[in-house]
Amino acid sequence: MLINNTTANTQSYYAAKSDTKTAQKEEETESRVKTESTASAKIIGSINSSDEQVEKLEKALANTDLSALIKETQDLNDELEVNWNAVVDPDGKIYARTYAESLVKQYESAKNTIEQYYASAHRDNLAQGSEAVAMNYLALKYTKFGRDVGSPYYRSDMSEAERQMALRQERALLLGGRVTLGDPYALQSVGGMLNMEQTEKIAKQAAQDVIEQLIREYKEHNAIDEIDVRV
């Protein structure tokens, strides 16, 4: 495809690239991206009390080849004279950071939804007075002890699995801990628990949207016109 009115700076930028420098840049990109993903795993892990979920998330981020994700978008430009992704994000750092931030935002949103779901019960628990009394109150609501003593607080309207989840989440809130994100009851109103494949898809799209916006701004700033170029 033809690129019309490409600036002298862009032309000289690509003319100066050698195969050696390109290989070096890819190596630097991979290193920086791995650092970003590791940091993001720690951030997301800090809002999740489920060791299993944290481990899965950290493993997913650690094993996600973000440099490969970047190359996926750059492949769209292989047939072009100019690789616009490389112009606006030469080391892939913007893409990697946006990808990680999107994952964090999705998990924080789920966490907030869960805390809101249990907010009323949490206020009720706090109204019991001391922490010890509140813990006994939880036992009366959600455990076999409450059922066996005929507690008026026992939640017989819930399934065993739902009672166990409520006990876990309300106890975490009461003791200042972190709720687990693997809560199908609290997240039912927003489509259920987070799906790793879907969250990654959303994160990739968010990252590419940012890159495409930067490309549009770059072209506008440099008065670059194109004919039927997909970025």
Describe the structure.
With 231 residues, this protein is mainly α. Helix content is 67%, strand content 2%. The protein contains 11 helices and 2 strands; from the N terminus they run E-H-H-H-H-H-H-H-H-H-H-H-E. A two-stranded antiparallel ribbon has the order 1-2. The longest helix has 27 residues. The radius of gyration is 25 Å and the shape is rod-shaped. The two termini are 12 Å apart. The relative contact order is 0.16.
List keywords for this structure.
disordered C terminus, single chain, 11 helices, mainly alpha, 231 residues
Topology:
Blueprint: E1 3-4, H1 8-15, H2 19-45, H3 51-63, H4 66-75, H5 84-88, H6 93-117, H7 119-126, H8 131-142, H9 144-148, H10 160-174, H11 196-221, E2 225-226
Antiparallel strand pairs: 1-2
Helix pairs in contact: 2-3, 2-6, 6-11, 8-10
Described by its quaternary structure, the protein is single chain
Rg, please? Answer: 25 Å
Strand content: under 5%
Distance between the termini: 12 Å
What is the strand arrangement across the widest sheet?
A: 1-2
The average pLDDT is: 77
Overall 3D shape? rod-shaped
Condensed summary:
26% of the residues are buried. The protein contains eleven helices and two strands; from the N terminus they run E-H-H-H-H-H-H-H-H-H-H-H-E.
